[in-house]
């Protein structure tokens, strides 16, 4: 129904962003909300997927058509819902996901929250050989920063926000605690903390 929304990002939290367009605030769930930045004037284009079920209706948003396309393909796999697809996309390196599917690397795929051996095998069966149209653009710019000039946020606050976002994605507190010492040594934005954490969690 909605291909994209162009508006101002007025609110960001660990689960979703709010995009204001024509005086309407749209709640949009995204892989990494902190990749978007609150602004009073700057308009952003958020590509959307309108998810409708008998018991649920929600908007999911992405920074590119390629990211949206990969989300749709993941959603087509039996056993993967919107939350699971967002957690996979939030890894920061969709190229690794595509490579794992093409190489039938179940060991890598099961590292994502909610993905067991059965679901990993289903991903391979359903998507192997069908992601060629997604890979090129995804690899080049899917997770590029929206605002390279943004100053590094205060580390403690940014790290706390990143931890909350990881919990929303489905990672257990025990898993997060294991990587905290390495993260605490760095001074990053929330978005950068999330990317760094996900890279460590997927090793």
TrEMBL record:
GO cellular component terms, semicolon-separated: cytoplasm; Holliday junction helicase complex; Holliday junction resolvase complex
Entry keyword DNA repair: yes
Top-level taxonomic group: Bacteria
GO biological process, one term: DNA recombination
Classification via CDD domains: UBA_RuvA_C (cd14332)
Subcellular location: Cytoplasm
Nucleotide-binding among keywords: yes
UniProt domain Helix-hairpin-helix DNA-binding motif class: residue ranges: 72-91, 107-126
Region (Domain III) residue spans: 156-203
Pfam families the record matches: HHH_5, RuvA_C, RuvA_N
GO molecular function list: ATP binding; four-way junction DNA binding; four-way junction helicase activity
Keywords annotated in UniProt: ATP-binding, Cytoplasm, DNA damage, DNA recombination, DNA repair, DNA-binding, Helicase, Hydrolase, Nucleotide-binding
Its biological purpose: The RuvA-RuvB-RuvC complex processes Holliday junction (HJ) DNA during genetic recombination and DNA repair, while the RuvA-RuvB complex plays an important role in the rescue of blocked DNA replication forks via replication fork reversal (RFR). RuvA specifically binds to HJ cruciform DNA, conferring on it an open structure. The RuvB hexamer acts as an ATP-dependent pump, pulling dsDNA into and through the RuvAB complex. HJ branch migration allows RuvC to scan DNA until it finds its consensus sequence, where it cleaves and resolves the cruciform DNA.
Subunit composition and interactions: Homotetramer. Forms an RuvA(8)-RuvB(12)-Holliday junction (HJ) complex. HJ DNA is sandwiched between 2 RuvA tetramers; dsDNA enters through RuvA and exits via RuvB. An RuvB hexamer assembles on each DNA strand where it exits the tetramer. Each RuvB hexamer is contacted by two RuvA subunits (via domain III) on 2 adjacent RuvB subunits; this complex drives branch migration. In the full resolvosome a probable DNA-RuvA(4)-RuvB(12)-RuvC(2) complex forms which resolves the HJ.
Domain comment as written in the entry: Has three domains with a flexible linker between the domains II and III and assumes an 'L' shape. Domain III is highly mobile and contacts RuvB.
Family: Belongs to the RuvA family.
Protein name as catalogued: Holliday junction branch migration complex subunit RuvA
């Amino acid at each position: 129904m909605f291909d994209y929304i162009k508006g101002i990002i007025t609110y960001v939290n660990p689960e979703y962003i709010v995009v204001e367009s024509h005086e309407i605030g749209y709640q949009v769930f995204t892989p990494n909300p902190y990749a978007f930045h609150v602004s009073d004037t700057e308009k952003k284009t958020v590509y959307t997927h309108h998810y409708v079920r008998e018991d649920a209706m929600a908007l999911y948003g992405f920074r590119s058509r390629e990211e949206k396309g990969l989300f749709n393909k993941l959603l087509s796999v039996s056993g993967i819902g919107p939350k699971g697809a967002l957690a996979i996309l939030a890894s920061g390196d969709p190229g690794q996901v595509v490579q794992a599917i093409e190489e039938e690397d179940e060991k890598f795929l099961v590292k994502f929250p909610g993905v067991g051996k059965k679901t990993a095998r289903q991903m391979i069966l359903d998507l192997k050989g069908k992601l060629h149209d997604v890979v090129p653009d995804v690899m080049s710019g899917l997770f590029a920063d929206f605002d390279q000039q943004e100053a590094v946020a205060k580390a403690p606050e940014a790290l706390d926000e990143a931890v909350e976002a990881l919990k929303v994605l489905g990672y257990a507190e025990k898993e997060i605690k294991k990587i905290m010492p390495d993260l605490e040594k760095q001074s990053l934005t929330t978005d950068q903390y999330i990317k760094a954490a996900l890279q460590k969690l997927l090793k």
